[in-house]
Amino acid sequence: MPRLDLLVTNGELLDGSGSPARPADVGVRAGKLVLLPADSGAAATEVVDAAGLVVTPGFIDVHTHSDLLAGDDERRETLRRAPLLQGVTTEICGNCGISPFPVPTERVGPVRELIAATFGPPSSTYPSFAGFAAAQGRSRRNHLAALVGHGTLRAAVVGFAQRRATPEETRRMCGLLDEALAAGAAGLSTGLIYSPGVNAGTYEVIALARVAAAHGKPYVTHLRDEMSQVEAALEEALEIARAAGAALQVSHHKTAGRRAWGATVRTLARLARARADGLDVTCDVYPYTAGSTALHAMLPPWLIADGVPAMLAAAADPAVRDRIRVDLVAGVPGWENTVGNGGWDLIRIASAPHHPHAEGHTVAELAAAGGVDPVDYACDLLAAENGDVTILSHSMHEDDVRRVLASPLTMVCSDGVPKGGRPHPRWAGSFARVLGHYVREVRLLELADAVHKMTGMPAHRFGLAGRGLLADGYAADLVVLDPRRVTDGATYAEPLSPPGGVRCVVVGGRIVVDDGTVTGARPGRVLAVPDRR
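Above: the chain sequence. Below: its structure as tokens.
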């Protein structure tokens, strides 16, 4: 046998299919896997001794937002390392309806406004998938596959107008989507709770999902409601997928707010029935009871519907603030949130770039310290930060998180937003937390099943051919870990603390994490996903 570039020997192999572990050696040559018998003694330039450890495919995080990461300072570099240290070798980005492409040159302004409203100022926008892939692939340590955001399409064609798209506007959105999917984008995403997606009707989304279906790529959705109306929102998603003939991925499935706790009993049963009826539907989940989003998402949707500048101007008006207070108590038809369900003491500031003293504290605490009403504090902070404020929302029940995670329809995600301040620990902890807490400690899942949810299952869902399994000729993305020690170090207080128990991570045949240290190798790239129909 010709000499291998890398040999991982003496380990137990979990191949990503859900099958039990077995002893085997794993070789790498020219970025591809070569499976060998245990104790093969094959010659290799570099050898990793995995005695007492488990070897798995590289983990695939099916829901991140790292395509929007701006800046190159040391803080950003620390954020970029977080998923790698857990073993995440591929991320699916462009979720929740927001992607930095395709953006016609003359429509850059509205799309940058869209991104900034939720994630902060973007590094750049791109007219095409090819431009995005070329820019992102220059210095990556892990891989990206990218969805096309419906919100981006709408901002580029319709803007933030509170109306349905015209047939001509829908045709133009479909054209942009078709071009991006043909070039290698992985599917279509929506964020129907966010502006401008909130302004879209069901039939507009069906038209776009039909384009995704024509390419054999999934429709991925942040539901229009994840609280007490989650079941109705799920029915809309199922209707869209059925009418379009598209596979459906329900993003970060949750039933948030006290009035929705326990509803996963019904939502998971509904997904199972839809699948039994022939609809290709799956979901994903992050293993925490707190979510994270923009602060303005805690306010009534009419406030943000026209975009950030209009929101900030309106929120300066005392009469508008009075209306917000009324709506938070009385509710708005079709909308509710954690504030109305529990109070401002559940909303913790995660990122406020110009007010770091606010990070880590609840809106209730900060308002009380300043002697002001919480709505006034929230509106003033949004104005001072030009809308760029991220929060943590403690709104879910542990029983629901466990129920979704245990479902055979579920994959693992982080919903990671690589942003400064005190971000949600899910960015640096989700995968290690599943393997350490929910597999080893709680015994909610078997290790082989958890690895399948992180590898083979997401690779199949998103058309990542030749990835997600340990098999001859597959891409050499690997994780070597100690199942007895793997644990999440990230907490709400220290959200970027690294995990323990991950010995080695390999991307494209090159070691990118060696005994907890990120190396200088940058073999990652943007993956072009081929059509499957």
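The longest helix spans residues 167-183.
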